[in-house]
Amino acid sequence: MTHATDVREALDAGAKLALLPWDQGPRLLADLPAHERARFLGTLPEHGVGVGLCDEATCVMVKRGSSIPPCFLCTHLLTGPEFLPELDELRQATRAETHSLPATSSISALQANKRYELECLDRLIAGIRSREDPLGEGGAP
């Protein structure tokens, strides 16, 4: 029988590859060329993950309907103002989960993870809103 320490290097390499999509976070649909944005928006039901669209053909969330880590942290997520209601809903649910966790040391890692998710959601939502109407005027300067 092989001990985990004997295969640590291979395990570390595999883990780094598996976590790569969550390294840089989501992309905004507004940053795509118009034709590419239209193409992805046309695939909404097939590539929809609630808070945006997934551009990865082999996505676990798209294929099986589950994702850990969550899609809103993934590099393959394409999102924008079209998905603000869903992002706001996810933020409220995450906030409620965070507040419902008991303050015990046995789940401090879970508490920290939920706080991190909330911070990421806040940054993502703020980033989308700042791009929606950067001048706050509803139109051109």
Classification by helices and strands: mainly alpha
Say how many strands there are.
3
Number of helical elements: 6
Q: Could you say which overall geometry the principal axes of the C-alpha atoms support? A: globular
In oligomeric terms, what are we looking at? single chain
Uncertain parts = 17-22, 134-141
Written account of the structure:
- The chain has 141 residues and is mainly alpha-helical.
- The protein has one domain.
- Helices cover 50% and strands 5% of the residues.
- The chain is built from six helices and three strands; from the N terminus they run αβααβαβαα.
- The protein has a three-stranded mixed beta sheet with strand order 1-3-2, with no helix packed on it.
- α5 runs antiparallel to α6.
- The termini are far apart.
What's a quick, concise take on this entry?
By secondary structure, this protein is mainly alpha-helical. The chain has helices at 8-19, 34-41, 44-47, 60-64, 84-100, 108-132, and strands at residues 27-28, 53-54, 77-79.
Sum up the structure in keywords.
141 residues, mainly alpha, 3-stranded mixed β-sheet, 6 helices, 3 strands, 50% helix, globular, disordered C terminus
Note the topology.
Blueprint: H1 8-19, E1 27-28, H2 34-41, H3 44-47, E2 53-54, H4 60-64, E3 77-79, H5 84-100, H6 108-132
Parallel strand pairs: 1-3
Antiparallel strand pairs: 2-3
